Amino acid sequence: MSMQTGLATSTTRLRSYAPATDVSVAAPAPRLEIARATPVTAHRNPRTEPGPVRFIIIALAITFLSVFVVLPLVVVFASAFSKGVVAYFAALAEPEALAAIKLTLLIAAISVTLNLVFGVVAAWAISKFEFAGKTFLITLIDLPFSVSPVISGLVYVLLFGAQGYFGPWLQAHDVHILFAVPGIALATIFVTFPFVARALIPLMQEQGTQEEEAAISLGASGLQTFFRVTLPNIKWGLLYGVLLCNARAMGEFGAVSVVSGHIRGETNTMPLLVEILYNEYQFVASFAIASLLAMLALITLVAKTILEQRLDEAEVPDGD
Amino acid sequence: MAIEVKNIVKRFGSFAALDNVDLKVADGELLALLGPSGSGKTTLLRIIAGLDWPDSGEVAIDGENALSRGASERQVGFVFQHYALFRHMTVFENVAFGLRVQPRAIRKDEATIRARVKNLLDLVQLDWLANRYPSQLSGGQRQRIALARALAIEPRILLLDEPFGALDAKVRKELRQWLRSLHNEIHVTSIFVTHDQEEALEVANRVVVMDKGKIEQIGSPGDVYDNPATAFVHGFIGESIVLPVDVAGDAVRLDGRPLNIPALGAASGAAKLFVRRHDMAVGPAGTGALEGAIRHVRSFGPIQRAEVALSGSEGKTVIEIDAPRDRELQAGEIVSLQPRRYRIFAAQE
Amino acid sequence: MGLTLTWLSVIILIPLGALFLKTFELSLDQFWGIVTSRRTLNALKISFGLSFAAACVNLVMGTIIVWALVRYRFPGRRLFDAVVDIPFALPTAVAGVALTQLFAQKGWLGAPLAELGIKVAFTPIGIFIAMIFIGIPFVVRTVQPVLIDLDPEIEEAAASLGANRWHTVFRVILPSLIPALLTGFALAFARAIGEYGSVIFIAGNLPNVSEIAPLLIVIRLSEFRYADATAIAVVMLVASFLIILLINRLQRWAQARIPVH
Question: Of C67, C160, C66, nearest to A48 (Cα)?
């Protein structure tokens, strides 16, 4: 049905339902202390390896993560500040940079808002009602995760491009979608579509419909039930979905690159500007923008960890 | 093979799981370690198996120091509470595992391994399940496969951790009898851990009662039931009536009134009187050590169970006794009670 | 309900429909011609081949990392656990420029490697490195919860049956992790095939040598050769679909034997 079922082996349902790509595959800090309480020698404990083996495995893990993951992150900040703090802020104050930041924020605002509304509605429909074609709907929601970002952009070019299906009509009516803000927004919405729904579906399924039924039996209207019963129950999950949706919306590169047209000061988002500046050998400027995005990623990771703890705490132990 | 455990101490932080435990198990015995959770019985079993290590003390199997060897070198069969079957292997491969991982020098050839696994599956009467995976078996079947797997390595001793704990009542009863008859057949020295007294009394030749990291009593099932050595054993095994009494010399008093029963050598001071429910003889008022009003009677099978509110306690002390049905008791009746067999233990602290 | 479906249609269904519609405009010969042209074939080979190789590295290193994170206590363990998610969270363009800078001839790692005669940036090795970077969290985050939940009694049972540690790890523990390992591998593989941002900076993008399939799609689009772009995209989509199918098969096969408690 989808790649995500691949994670069905994981422990909590939120995680088992985590999307296949991107930030949202959860980072469970192992809560179970596997090692036995008393330290015993390697020969004695039947559940561990000899000291030298342990040392080699830890060394390999640390080295690999340091070289392949930590070092690239460090490079971003080191390069951004390589000409000093003044050059760094000067690069960020360039009109081009400011325009990119503004556009990125605008795109993120549009796509997060729309995906928030429709993500909640889709999750609500899927988890609280039974209807034909539900599996198909879930697959459809998952789809953007398993498609290359370039292909996500490509489909919009096929629709709205000069030789696309709606291209001639759009040109005749002087409507700009491709190489303009609407196209970038559409592509971003496409790639970030699954986040909110994905975060909510398992949560809402777990909570079932009893509380809603109770509210309705007590005389609440549909909307009252939603805002007073359903929404408070899913607020952390919702925030989680929004967080990841936002991170991806601001950072999306492949899909946006295909539809943006790279018009400087107009259709360049921050990731696109990183590319352009880098290709023009303006390394400080490129990495200055990149550092902002890296910061966003780090903040997202921290917030995600905190939210996951909240969600774990909120998880009701099996009552039945 | 005989097992000898000497002065074993095991602490988890400040908690003493085992506090100077000594135990001797004779060759061919079927021994039960009985106690409430946290009594240290499973820890003791794991130490014998080499899965845990004591802070101090000795363990010898067949006269040989076992602590110098790891679990994989002890040739001890261990049946885990949740069976710990390898889920990715068939029943056959599970049982064959211990034979396949033997050092190359002593590893048997494939035909011998197959024959031996087949024998073991026959022994546990599950040869028809050889090609199934553990997830396709019932709890009782898993238990028997776990046992067959442990027996495959021709263990010097067999250790079972709560072997029936995860099974439902009916299967549990069947397996108990089966385990006992299996032991009669193969006669390997076996220790099993249980918190279920009925299980211990029914299956084992000898029962070790443990509490708070100490051995309270070792004896035959009859011994620990009829002659409990400590207040804990009396309270833990079988149903007991417990009354707070005072002992002065050979006199025993309840709520300041003499009971007219000998103290049986209990030390003077605060103490507890333990009587089995069926050891309380009922007679007409004024003839026994205790007196009380019957509040409620239920009759079933050979007995009638009566709730008696003892006189002189303002009806606050209510005990349950089991009487034979030779004379029907009535609610409201005043009766006297005479302990036929009883024990008095000094109250602790 | 209706609203949801309408929205889904606008955002997902219609665009994807357009993709297949476009494909059907091509004759089979045309399609075959595009897909088997030297440049396309090479791009697909590079994408699939290097993705597979990177996923293999991720499988091995991911297992080692999970083992260290779950089984051992060492200073900074929690930090390194969190660090695993960085490739998920870092925008791909940022990862791309950072990796390039790191492995460029004058980069922190590029310089010492150049002295050894190894050129990473702007070669297929660079693509390989970028694919390893983006794939590692998939293996780690798929396998980690399974190893955490692995019943300790399983290992004790193996030991009590006479197995040494080597036997216990390779015959009991790793086989129990196989479904998760394969899933993580497939997820990393699929992601690497579609990856664009983190790869194109370091790739060099030399046709037939270091040009990945997603880049070729972008190039064809910029040349307004929509049919070519579409044909390549369809091949990639079908391949991804097959991988997803495989994962689900594996999951079902594994779950039939190993019920999730």
Answer: C67
